[in-house]
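User: Okay, second chain of the day. Same drill as before: sequence in, structure tokens out.
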Amino acid sequence: MSRATKIVATIGPASSDRETLTRMIRAGVDVVRLNFSHGKPQDHIDRASLVREVADECGKKVAIMADLQGPKIRVGKFEQGKVMLANGDKFILDSDCQMGNQERVGLDYKALPRDLRGNDILLLNDGLIVLKVERVLGNEIHTVVMIGGELSNNKGINRQGGGLSAPALTAKDMDDIKTAMSFQADYVAVSFPKNATDMEMARQLSNVAGEPFGHKPMMIAKIERAEAIPLLQEILDASDGIMVARGDLAVEVGNAAVPGLQKRMIKMARASNKLTITATQMMESMIVNAVPTRAEVSDVANAVLDGTDAVMTSAETASGKYPVETVEAMSAICIEAERSDNVQLDADFLNLRFTRVDQSIAYGALFTAHHLRVKAIAALTESGSTALWMSRHNIDIPIFAITPNVATRRKASLFRNVHTLELAQCPDTEAMLKGAQDLLLAQGAVQKGDLVVATWGEPIGQVGGTNALKILRVGEY
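Assistant: Same drill. Structure tokens below.
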């Protein structure tokens, strides 16, 4: 059974050699995430080049996602590298401090004192340490330790309930966008966007940087700020997809709120014809263990059943001991979860009004394929939009995005239940349909006599022009 849910894998020191990367792609990686919080620009350029080489060797198109660091709201460094804070201790966050000690530590985000008031709660190191603000004196934030523990260099800071004013795009992010466009990253993930404006600015910067290469990436909003939740629809409208970034989001809104938010975000994104990636701690124990916990298996399976386009690894594949095994385990979980998924296309289309011809063709193809029980759907596409619309609804029939455009193939590798094939531009419809049929036969996706639903646009080659649907019997061409 082919896997519908895609796998986004972060690569780093544990997975940047050719052999490991080859094994990971063969195991099922669809999208490679480059984390711009770590490494130098040349590191990312070299890794992107290697990913493309290895993917081509494996006969597969793999998308590259450039994940921007965003604002560094972190403590500074300590003289001894770390301190141990006990409940009830007084502790100062001081933006003027150069080197921290048991009493105080510096701040990477110098404007933090302006954002805080007495009784605010600060969560450090993903919420493991909790500080209560007593008062703010100039550049000093005086706190008392509510929950103590070990605090080491450069750990993150969140305010409970959100509300920090740090901009989503920093000067470093703007430089990193230029680096990402130099190797034509297929996706740009924006950290900590607060509203649609943040995403619109990131898209504009990316399009300008990509213009010399004739490239426009798709934009992913990482939902990790509490204030982004009420504005989720406007952020979706300004993006091509969202990442349910459960780490920082959980720290700001509380762990208990995240599962419900995850389901809501995925449902909203699918209704808006947008992509979704579910991320953070999905297979966390596999950083050091060769098998996942039962809870992790359930977590990945539930994200699949929620309808996510992709599940994502972070440290598991970037720095963990078992990067290949993590991908293999994740792939197996996705396949098993999909077996139990319900197809409710009739209910999906009830009272739905179509606003575009190409959208109507996409949904008509789904409905026809479902009720005729065809073997495959062939979306002959330039931009991939038709395949994207089809992928917003669960169907147990594979969708093939067949295109002459390599960039479209890479981007579509993130779409749920969409597999991509390359077909050169054909002079006429008959030649195009025969080419699509032959590709599906060569892939083993269909056999002679099988039914296939095909969609395409006339005139051929026009972006956004899908306006034709045909039911084919394989072998007629």
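Residues 41-57 form the longest helix (17 residues).

User: Thanks, on to the next one.
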